[in-house]
Design goal:
This protein has three helices and seven strands. The chain is an alpha+beta fold. The protein is elongated.
Length: 136
């Protein structure tokens, strides 16, 4: 079970790092757009995202990067608001921090051969146990 959990967390970590590199956060649900009313998600501006006109500032500003926009190359948007909200709640940098913390917790609970902690040695049979929890 530990190997499955570690591989799942590692896969999430790699995907989050790739997503953050492709379109850095914070990701924002910028609302619906287009004929199909697809929900759009944008990240922080990047060199590749260029510039755009800001009606609010009446000036050209760095354009936010496209995570899932109505543009075909950005995936065509997200068709369900709940999905867009879920994507925004799982920011790449938050996911990276969570996964790194989970891997550190797993590292603390690596099984060791023997009896586990000294105070439990009389209670446990020798074998592969978690040294912190004393359970196999």
């Amino acid at each position: 079970m530990l190997s499955w959990l570690r591989s799942t967390i590692t896969a999430d970590l790699e995907a989050a790092r790739a997503a953050d590199e492709a379109s850095p956060g914070p990701w924002v649900n910028t609302g619906q757009y287009g004929c199909g009313d697809a929900w759009q998600i944008h990240g922080a501006p990047t060199e590749e995202s260029g510039t755009e006109w800001s009606e609010e500032l009446h000036d050209v500003v760095p354009a936010r990067s496209g995570v899932a926009t109505a543009a075909y190359e950005d995936g065509g948007g997200v068709w369900k608001r709940e999905v867009a909200d879920h994507m925004v709640l799982h920011q790449p940098r938050d996911t990276i921090a969570r996964c790194e913390a989970e891997l550190r917790i797993l590292d603390l609970h690596q099984p060791v051969d023997g009896y586990g902690r000294v105070e439990y040695r009389k209670l446990m049979d020798p074998g592969s146990v978690c040294e912190v929890c004393c359970f196999d």
